Amino acid sequence: MKHKKYKLDSSSPVKKMGSAKETKKIKEYYLSFFDKEKETPKTLQDKMLKVLIADGWREPDGVKPYWTFKKNKMIEYFDRAFPKHKRSILNARLNELMKVAVIEKSVKYKTKPYLIKGRCWDSRVKQIESTLEDKTVEELCTNVIMGNDPVRKARFITDNGTQGRVDK
After folding, report:
1. How much is the pLDDT for 79?
2. Do 90 and 82 form a contact (C-beta atoms < 8 A)?
C-alpha cells in the first residue's frame, strides 16, 4: 500500500494557516488519507442533488420560471456532470431519488412527464453531507485523528510522530 509522501512542516498536526499555497498542501495531505474510500450510493445522490441546486433546478410547477428535464435528458445532464460514472449507475441513483419522492414526475403535462422536485425534497436536501473536498483542514484533521479508522491513525502517527526530547 503506497501513499503519497506528504510531510507537515511543523510538529503540530494543525497549525495556523499561512498562505493559500500552504493551506492547499496541508489539505492535500489530509485528503490523501481518504484516497481508498469508496463512494456509496448516498454520497453519489448527495453530489447529484448538489449539482441540481448549484445550477438552479429547484422550482416546482407554476411557482417561478424554472428549467427542468425529462428523465432521459436528466441522465444525460448527470452524465456530463459525472463522466467517471456509468449511465446505468446514474439512472439507478435517479430512480432511487424518484422512489422516495425527492424527485417526481410532473402531473401538469401528461404527455410530457418532466421531472420536478418532490414532496421530500426539502428534508432530503437537509440531509446532504459535505464532501471531503468541502471540509476545512481542521475537520479533516479531526476525522483522521479522532475517527474510527485505526489505519489512518497509525499512518498519521508514523508520518508525523517523532521521539520527543527530554530536557535535562
Report:
1. 94
2. yes
